[in-house]
Write a structure and sequence with these properties.
The complex is a heterodimer of chains A (286) and B (435). Helices cover 31% and strands 13% of the residues of chain A. By secondary structure, chain A is an alpha/beta fold. Chain A is globular. Chain B is an alpha+beta fold. Chain B has one domain (3-434): Cytochrome-c3 Hydrogenase, chain B. Chain B is globular. The chains are: A alpha/beta (286), B alpha+beta (435). The interface between A and B is large, with 64 and 80 residues.
Chain lengths: 286, 435
């Protein structure tokens, strides 16, 4: 590896390490880039000066915040990777009074980092140069983020990468989904009564979930068309898709769209961390 | 009173070890899990059927185990038995998890301890293994596990193919064939690397003079008696002398295991009737009659001849992991030699309220998900995490190394490395343990 090879580090805040595991599967960086810090696989105690800092996980504890603020000045570019770093992720399901009280008290745990009232996206505290959404982003997306993102050609939406056929003669009346047992191969999951949001979710993942027979839960967030418009627009576009392909009542769609597994991802770009922030510019999102 | 703090790396998640020293002697050793997200609380009110999508997010390293445990808990609550083809595909999925995890633990987490480097990815290690190409071979073995998870789970992290009542689809023969070739190649590489690893471990033992001099402990696993199965329904306990066994179903776990909260860690600790227990690879190697595949059985025999049954040395966890890596690759090949596609992949179901217990043997030991469901929503969730079973064992072993390397006059610098080796032998997962 040449001495001038790009130096990068991975700072993991509160998350599941799925992003790190995905990066390990990308592999191509191993010969080309110099990994300076990533506690999962390297014994090193602090983030050194680097060209690229990937940050995964949300800011959940005071220690997360300390580590984030310490690391940022040492990086030329900061990339927020994964849903947790971008929106707080699954931990945001705990953004409710009864759960918050639990986090703020925990009186019996004394010698551990303190919990913040909620899990924050990292750009609530620091400037982010690029966003890499996905839960987790695929190895291919990691490589694109590390190499030249301008070169990366992705489909606009997951639907285009899925390959299942939309048909006219299958119009479900309810979202029966998984309860039916077997999934028909090759036919659009919406036609089969699944709540799949691949029609408006950002492409680039190559659609492993719907191709594998599981509806898209939208982990890459809204497509470029919707990204700066807020989740209301996204919900409306989902409604339009279901109206054209099914006879499912609008209220049922609305309920499914606002259910927890969707809420993890649907609101990750627009309605995040309070209401007073502008949307993230789509040029920064891979 | 001075406190020595050891931040930990090459484990999953945020943890540290602290050792208090008084008058030149260690008085306590603590394993501190430093993160917390509160899954048991934040899933309250979630529609029960969404759990298989939400709970894999507890951990990206162990997402497969959580995914299958969630599906099994719901099947238990709804009274369902998935068709045999679905069970086979789930076994393949769990084997992929074992391959990926054991290859990661052996070659990425613990081999640097034997090579004396900080990471297999760093330039200095490239020089150390230039003649052996360890890093690239290790990654190929690991990738075979990833491919198995993708094949059987649809996604290699946070898989999606296990669903309540079965799996979303079978596996097309062409897709299986591609991965079969990859697994076959990985099996040869895994054996080569494991032989190297075994030699390195012998050298390490010669240098430090022990395989781990902690006392024996109880062992727990949920893998069946004859050969490892990762979706068994019964937890078994083996006493330190290897004889008395007790077995109980997942739903009785509170009758047999005691849970202790900690004030210095976000992870709890489990004991078996007050005794220290160990889960993970060594427990499984001690508790199975045989592995049931030729190469793995060869390694198990060599292991038992060298260390007896039950074996207790802590560094033997790592060797047992290698035996399992070989087993999982062999067993995956056996499964892929049979049919993996067909009509009968899932059964229709009607959800109902009640309690459900789902168990799998995760790479780190028995994992139980318990859900109480009312009005089709989760009102209570419990996640019984394998790493938590090992907490007392980890701390006891840390006290042993602290006593070994801290004397009245000095602290042996080997202590820091020993702390790392002890913790990595248990391959703890902090994201899971704290959830």
């Amino acid at each position: 590896m040449p001495e001038e090879a790009v130096r990068f580090a991975v700072l993991q805040l509160s998350g599941c390490a799925g992003c790190e595991v995905s990066l390990l599967n990308a592999e191509e960086w191993i010969e080309r880039y110099r990994l300076m810090y990533m506690p999962l696989v390297v014994s090193a105690y602090d983030v050194p000066p680097v060209d690229i800092l990937l940050v995964s996980g949300g800011v959940r504890t005071d220690e997360d915040l300390y580590n984030l603020r310490r690391a940022i000045p040492r990086a030329k570019q900061v990339v927020a990777v994964g849903t947790c770093a971008i929106s707080g992720g699954v931990a945001s399901l705990g953004d409710r009074d009864e759960v918050r009280q639990l986090f703020l008290t925990q009186p019996e745990r004394r010698h551990v980092p303190r919990m913040l009232p909620k899990c924050h996206p990292i750009d609530a505290f620091v400037e982010v140069g690029r966003y890499l959404p996905g839960c987790p982003p695929t190895p291919e997306l990691f490589m694109a983020a590390l190499l030249d993102p301008a070169d990366f050609k992705a489909s606009k939406i997951v639907c285009q990468e899925c390959g299942r056929r939309k048909v006219r003669d299958l119009r479900p009346e309810h979202l029966v989904g998984l309860r039916q047992g077997e999934v028909l191969p090759d036919i659009c999951l919406i036609n089969q009564g699944y709540f799949c949001v691949g029609s408006s979710t950002r492409g680039g993942c190559r659609a492993p979930c719907p191709r594998g027979g599981h509806p898209c839960v939208g982990c890459r967030g809204p497509s470029d068309v919707l990204i700066d418009k807020g989740s209301t627009e996204w919900l409306a576009s989902i409604q339009r898709v279901f109206q054209s392909l099914t006879d499912v009542p609008a209220a049922e769609i609305e309920q499914a769209a606002r259910s927890p597994q969707m809420a993890l991802f649907l609101f990750q770009f627009s309605d995040y961390a309070g209401v007073d922030r502008p949307p993230r510019p789509k040029e920064k999102v891979l | 009173m001075p406190t020595l703090t050891f931040p930990l790396s090459r484990i999953e998640g945020h943890a540290q070890v602290t050792i208090d020293v008084q008058n030149g002697r260690p008085v306590s050793a603590r394993f501190q899990a430093m993160e917390f997200r509160g899954f048991e609380y934040l899933v309250q009110g979630v529609p029960a059927e969404q759990m298989p999508v939400i709970v894999p997010r507890i951990c990206g390293v162990c997402s497969t185990a959580h995914h299958v445990a969630a599906v099994r808990a719901l099947e238990d609550a709804f009274g369902l038995t998935p068709p045999p083809l679905a069970q086979t595909i789930r076994e393949l999925l769990m084997l992929g998890q074992i391959v990926q995890n054991q290859a990661t633990s052996l070659f990425i987490f613990t081999m640097p301890d034997r090579l004396g480097v900080s990471s297999i990815f760093q330039a200095d290690s490239a020089a150390a293994d230039a003649d052996q190409g360890i890093a690239s071979r290790a990654l190929r073995v690991r990738r075979a596990g990833t491919s198995l998870i993708s094949l059987a789970g649809g996604q290699f992290i946070h898989p999606i193919k296990a669903i309540v009542g079965g799996v979303t689809s079978g596996i097309a023969p062409e897709a299986a064939e591609v991965v079969r070739g990859e697994v076959e190649a990985a099996l040869g590489l895994a054996c080569e690397l494991f032989d190297i690893y075994w030699e390195m471990s012998l050298a390490l033992r010669d240098r430090i003079g022990t395989w781990g001099d902690d006392e024996p402990a109880c062992y727990i696993a949920a893998t069946g008696e004859d050969a490892p199965r990762y979706t068994d329904d019964t937890i078994r306990v083996m006493c330190p002398d290897g004889c008395c066994h007790e077995a109980f179903p997942a739903r009785d776990f509170r009758k047999h295991l005691d849970f202790v909260e900690s004030e210095y860690s976000y992870a709890d600790a489990t004991s078996y009737r007050g005794q220290v227990i160990r889960a993970n690879s060594l427990a499984r190697a001690n508790m199975t009659q045989a592995m049931g595949t030729p190469l793995a059985d060869g390694y198990l025999e060599r292991f038992r001849q060298a260390f007896g049954r039950p074996a207790h040395g802590l560094l033997l966890f790592d060797l047992a992991r290698g035996i399992e890596l070989v087993y999982a690759l062999e067993r995956a090949l056996e499964i892929m030699a049979g049919p993996l596609s067909g009509e009968d992949t899932a059964i229709p179901y009607t959800p109902r309220d009640g309690d459900g217990y789902g168990m799998v043997e995760a790479p780190r030991g028995p994992l139980i998900h318990h859900y109480r469901i009312e009005n089709q929503k989760i009102v209570q969730a419990e996640f019984v995490i394998p790493t938590v079973h090992n907490m007392l064992a980890i701390e006891r072993a840390l006290r042993v190394v602290a006593a070994r390397y801290i004397t009245g006059e000095s602290i042996n610098m080997e202590l820091e490395r020993a702390v790392g080796r002890v913790v990595r032998a248990f391959d703890p997962c902090i994201a899971c343990a704290t959830h």
